[in-house]
Amino acid sequence: MHILSLPHPKLTPIHTTPPPLYHLLVPSMAENSKPSYDDQQEIEELISSLPKGKGWHSSGLTLYQNFWCHSKFLPGVISFQRHFLARDSDVLIASKPKSGTTWLKSLAFSVLYRAQFNPTEANANHPLLSSNPHALVRTLELGQSAGHAPDLSGFADPRLFGTHVPYDSLPYSIRRSRCKVIYICRNPLDVVVSLWHFVAQVDAGDRAGGWSGMEEYFDNFCKGMDGYGPFWDHLLGYWKASQERPKKVLFLKYEDLKEDTAGNLKRIAEFMGVPFSDEEERNGVVEEIVKMCSLGSLKELEVNKTGRSIAGFENNSYFRKGEVGDWVNYFSLSMAERLKNIMEEKLSHFGLTFRVN
Ligand code: A3P
């Protein structure tokens, strides 16, 4: 049993050349940041009045609407809440970071746009081969400044987006419209380990976060002080919504997706209203998508080894081991016991459990 201590990798240069086809699907962040509202000052004043906590980046966390938001992303979250207008045909990938977002984005993208981008041929033009999944499926609250409304006019229906915002804090139009939400969660023990590796990389150039080690990060996570957390509220918000409105919210677990990727891919396709036909199944479309979106395939692509698709995060930081139960390599017995007790107390009562060995 050992506690993780990571070297700080050097930052790689920003990927400046847009990948092929990227511009057809995703307007650039710069194009999306047209200032059209003058609420910037009001948002900044609001943020400065809210409680603060320690997080990644020197900017830390801010407690907003009962969740801890990375302070540097909060203006974007508020703009998203105020200005985003959902359409009935939209699909939203929702998650707490490090729960399998990148994987689900790539699977959902491949399924939803398979008429345009055939995944069965050795299709060198498939966007996933030249663009990071986060460049193709934009996280709505990221890349926005205070008072800037996202210009999403370049996106054709059906639109596919991502978000980390808790269910109760989603823009009203998402909750009220017929748009669909696919939520992915993961055993919190593995989430902390994945987060810690990510944080060590993200904070490598910004040591003001100043974590003494994984135990301190773990302690904050257990207290609920973690980006978009407490984790139990994030999970329960989407869990309850999926039970109350199963046609609107599909609730997935990373572990189930690992165990039966093809079966869950079919569920995702049906939920999005684009089920696989018998012919597609006979032609092996499901298996081709599973293969193209596997960790091994995505990790080896040049586009995912260098550059950034979201400012501040290197593309390679989204791909690590992708294992279930990796926590056993990092947690002491007492750490595991503490987190399992929290899961029992906060989640099990609502029927939300994870297989933990
Ligand atoms: P590990 O750090 O445990 O390896 P997110 O996409 O929400 O940021 O989650 C990142 C986690 O998902 C990382 O977990 C990463 O390795 C894993 N992951 C990324 N792509 C994956 C894929 N195609 N299949 C399975 N796991 C994947």
Features:
357 residues, alpha/beta, Rossmann fold, four-stranded parallel beta sheet, 9 strands, globular, binds adenosine-3'-5'-diphosphate
Please give a structural write-up.
- With 357 residues, this protein is of the alpha/beta class.
- The chain has a single domain, classed as 3-Layer(aba) Sandwich (Rossmann fold).
- 39% of the residues lie in helices and 10% in strands.
- Strands 5-4-6-7 form a four-stranded parallel sheet, with helices on both faces. Strands 1-2-3 form a three-stranded antiparallel sheet, with no helix packed on it.
- Helix 5 crosses helix 13 (261-272).
- The longest helix has 15 residues, at 188-202.
- The relative contact order is 0.17.
- Adenosine-3'-5'-diphosphate (A3P) is lined by residues 95, 97-103, 190, 194, 197, 293-295, 298, 318-322, 326.
- Residues 95, 97-103, 190, 194, 197, 293-295, 298, 318-322, 326 line the site of adenosine-3'-5'-diphosphate.
Question: TL;DR?
Answer:
One of its GO terms (molecular function) is sulfotransferase activity. With 357 residues, this protein is α/β, with parallel strands linked by helices.
